[in-house]
Design a protein that fits this description.
alpha/beta, Rossmann fold, Helicase, Ruva Protein, domain 3, five-stranded parallel sheet, 11 strands
Length: 328
């Protein structure tokens, strides 16, 4: 086993310069926000979709666009609006009167990295069209079904403070996002750096440093990263505790209306591997699980009215689970 772990670690180390190139390119444009960039890369490496939430002006869209530019692949940006139609995403069939047949005009969803900007502004029909692409990695137009090219991932942004003209995302769709990131304000030094950077006439440009083949190779290495049985058990215990807190000695059954789905344990395992990859290791530690855990779980817990009355947030609940469940 040690030999296998060492072999995977060597492969991770060999790919480290490639990952550092991505951080260097993104650092030209994005000031601070190291955690957000790390989590975006985890989504790429673990083959998961990401929901980014934060107030306007925190470089959410810029970060996603810059990440897409570091990868030599197809990037599509879709601005979600209340009048958007499913055909605006997936495409449609166009009738050709001279030939007497229909041809398929593919929509912007036929790309590799899809930026769904302000995703909560689109109605249910649009969300259902996106849902098929996210879950099945395919699109159906008329009677034809098209497979989407790998890598395919949706990076969605939403504004938590504006409610007018927005639609709450269905729980089934939210659950399909591997990570939900909360982007916060920069500190004083970062704010100064941002102000000075934007004051320059010449803006820095991000260059492609990865290819789709690089990503697929990196994913193969991530899949081989070792997760001990005790850590797997730790992941499952955390997720089960969200469903039945009393069984784990936590007095929280009145605070949690619904716990995390099995996707939580699947994604927590995958994301912990990707985080270990970014740390240059061929094995997962319990700290990897604790570090990435809030981003996996915060959007999968449905709190009760009692929890809201106590001003408890999903992050508060997740922190209590990690504090209570014994680390292997």
């Amino acid at each position: 086993m040690k030999t296998q772990v060492q072999e995977v670690t060597d492969q991770v180390k060999a790919m480290e310069p490639m990952i550092q190139d991505v951080f260097s390119e993104l650092g030209k444009v994005i000031v601070g926000q190291r955690q957000m960039i790390e989590r975006l890369l985890i989504g790429v490496l673990a083959d998961g979709h990401i929901l980014v939430e934060g107030v306007p002006g925190l470089a959410k869209t810029t970060a996603v666009k810059c990440l897409a530019r570091t990868i030599h692949t197809q990037f599509r940006r879709i601005q979600f609006t209340p009048d958007l139609l499913p055909a605006d995403l997936i495409g449609t069939q166009i009738y050709r009167p001279r030939e007497g047949d229909f041809i398929v005009k593919k929509g912007p969803l036929f790309g590799n990295i899809i930026l769904a900007d302000e995703i909560n502004r689109a109605p249910a029909k649009v969300q259902s069209a996106l849902l098929e692409a996210m879950q099945e990695k395919q699109v159906t137009i008329g009677e034809e079904t098209f497979r989407l090219e790998e890598p395919f991932m949706v990076l969605a942004t939403q504004n938590p403070i504006e409610q007018e003209g927005t639609y709450p995302l269905p729980e089934a769709q939210v659950d399909r996002f591997m990570l939900k990131l909360l982007v916060t304000y920069p500190n004083r030094e970062e704010e100064l750096a941002i102000m000075n950077q934007q004051a320059r006439r010449e803006k820095p440009e991000v260059k492609p440093v990865l290819t789709p083949e690089d990503i697929l190779k990196a994913r193969e290495v991530v899949d081989r990263i070792y997760v001990d049985e005790k850590i797997q058990g730790y992941i499952v215990d955390i997720v089960l505790a969200t469903r039945d807190p009393k069984a784990y000695g936590l007095n929280m059954e009145n605070l949690i209306q619904y716990g995390a789905s099995p996707r939580a344990s699947i994604y927590l395992n995958q994301a912990a591997k990707a985080y270990a990859f970014l740390q240059g290791r061929g094995y997962v530690t319990p700290q990897d699980v604790k570090t990435i855990g809030p981003d996996i779980l915060r959007h999968r817990l449905l709190l009760s009215y009692e929890a809201e009355a106590e001003e408890m947030t999903p992050d508060d609940a997740v922190a209590r689970f990690f504090e209570h469940i014994e680390v292997p």
